[in-house]
Design goal:
The complex is a heterodimer of chains A (about 220) and B (about 90). Chain A is mostly beta strands and about 220 residues long. Helices cover about 0% and strands about 40% of the residues of chain A. Chain A has a two-stranded antiparallel sheet. Chain A has a two-stranded antiparallel ribbon with strand order 3-4. In chain A, strands 5-6 form a two-stranded antiparallel ribbon. In chain B, strand 3 (about 15-20) and strand 4 (about 25-30) form a beta hairpin. Chain B is elongated. The chains are: A mainly beta (about 220), B mainly beta (about 90). The interface between A and B is large, with 65 and 58 residues.
């Protein structure tokens, strides 16, 4: 800055400094520092000095570097102070790993008209360690879900003397036909017998053979 | 600092500053700043001070953390003076 000063009654305007001969030779320079805005030691590193408004100020800001930065989890703590050059601290990388096994409920099968639904509920809990995880997926190629069901194609069943069965859980991929017979009527079944729920009503004529004459009698 | 100076035949020792009456009243103080050790990069940005040569300069040390350089971690770029900070 500069000051308008008076020496021995003479005014000198805009005087930035006063030069006075040194007793040992040379010139001592005294500077007007009234417009300096430096105001505290905390604005300079520790031990550095500068003048502001006629006052000598000694820096008090601690000199720090990257080693003074601390990281805890995702928190970076920056202590107050002076950093003479770039400083950095990184949050350690985390990771996510897919579980080796999958647990869940048993599979269930439900059927409807022309539909077969297989459902299974599974839960997957990846293992995640603390830290930053970049975008992506945590996969496990060994994890797989396989469902199988017994199938049976189209077939025709002719009723016989023994039962014929289709195992439970079998998925029918074709039409299953149980043969019918128009002769399965009561009149064609002898009275006293029942075939597939149809009670017979047919009667046979009475036949007798004379033991002596060997003659058959049919009535 | 201070200087040993001679004025009108008289020697004055260890003079740190010179006070002169201002034309408008009051006193102007002129200071010996030759022992200044600060440089622009030492002083907080925006703060003015005088170099040892008597030259007025502005501090350049950044006064905070440059948010543009914050990623998943922290970077302070160049000289900087910061207050205690916690970034999470």
């Amino acid at each position: 800055m500069a000051q308008n000063v008076i020496i021995n009654g003479v005014t000198y305007n805009a005087v930035p400094e006063v030069d006075i001969p040194k007793s040992g030779g040379g010139t001592a320079v005294f500077t007007d520092t009234s417009d300096a805005t430096l105001s505290s030691g905390g604005q300079m590193p520790n031990g550095v000095t500068a003048y502001a408004n006629g006052t000598k100020i000694t820096g008090s800001a601690a000199e720090n570097d990257s080693s003074d930065l601390s990281v805890s989890g995702a928190t970076v703590t920056v202590p107050a102070g002076y950093y003479s050059s770039s400083a950095s601290a990184s949050v350690s990388a985390g990771s996510a790993t897919a579980p080796a096994t999958i647990s869940g409920t048993s599979a269930s099968v439900s059927t409807g008209t022309n539909t077969l639904t297989l459902s299974k509920t599974v839960s997957v809990t990846p293992t995640v360690s603390a830290g930053y995880v970049s975008a992506g997926t945590a996969g496990n190629s060994s994890v797989s879900l396989t469902a199988s069901v017994t199938t049976k194609g189209a077939a025709t069943y002719t009723p016989g003397t023994s039962n014929q069965t289709i195992s439970s859980g079998t998925y029918l991929t074709g039409t299953q036909t149980i043969s019918g017979d128009a002769n399965l009527v009561s009149a064609n079944i002898i009275s006293g017998k029942t075939i597939f729920g149809v009670a017979g009503s047919a009667t046979l004529p009475s036949i007798t053979q004379d033991s002596t004459t060997k003659v058959l009698s049919i009535s | 600092m201070s200087q040993n100076i001679s004025l009108w035949g008289a020697t004055y020792s260890d003079v740190p500053s010179v006070l002169l009456p201002k034309s408008g009243g009051g006193t102007a103080s002129f200071t010996d700043v030759t022992d200044t050790t600060a440089t622009a990069s030492d002083v907080l940005s925006g703060k003015y001070f005088y170099l040892a040569t008597g030259e007025k300069v502005q501090g350049t040390a950044t006064g905070g953390i440059d948010g543009d350089n914050l990623g998943y971690g922290l970077s302070l770029v160049g000289s900087a003076i910061v207050g205690s900070s916690v970034i999470s």
